Write the structure tokens for this entry.
Amino acid sequence: MFDSLIEQIQKAVSPEIVAVDGNVYVSRRVELPPSEPMVTPLETQTLQSIIDYINSDFDGISADLALIIHVLSPTEVHLIDAVEGRHNTRNQWLIADCSEVRHNQFPFDRFLDVETFIIKTQAFFVPSKVRSQLLQCVSSVDASESLQANDDGVSQTATVKKGVRLSLETIPNPVELKPYRTFSEIEQPSSDFIFRIKKEGDEIKAALFESGSAQWKLEAITSIADFLKARLPKVTTIS
């Protein structure tokens, strides 16, 4: 009697498989087994760390496996593997993120005193001929001198009166500079910036204004992908 009752309960609990028009159905909801635990990714700040990790064969990772390098942005790259298992999941083995290193940026869109402007420009831009010309222009203007700026929207002409002599400094705009804003292993992409100089009271001030173009981001992503493809030809790199 009890054996019959237990058998009836088991039948009621067990899902019934039914075929209808060639399709297979079950009489009740069935849950998939839980997926395998995911790997905790390594966190680094350089592109070279990706190359070193793959070449080290550490954790059983090598260029011969089904790996993908995904360039998400100018500051972030992920190393992942192929989709696998019932849940179609993939592991993230390494995340290279230099955003913290590049967190401090030039204070665009606001006027700075000459000393601060010179220090910030030297610290946050790659040395170049344009950068040198810009610094020379700013440092050559003294607060005790009379400054008159004429702006036509394309260039700015600064008339500096030094005693009885007048000096004209023409600053073409925009100025092409390369801020430090992506991984150090690749060439920093350039962008155009609007340079302005003015006198507030007894103080000379200068500023750089962003042009708003995001083209540099695409150039940086492409450069990152090319850098990794050249050094890891067996690994798929997408961007």
Summary: The first strand starts at residue 17 and ends at 20. The CA atoms of residues 16 and 179 lie 66 Å apart. Helices lie at 2-13, 48-56, 114-124, 129-139, 215-231.
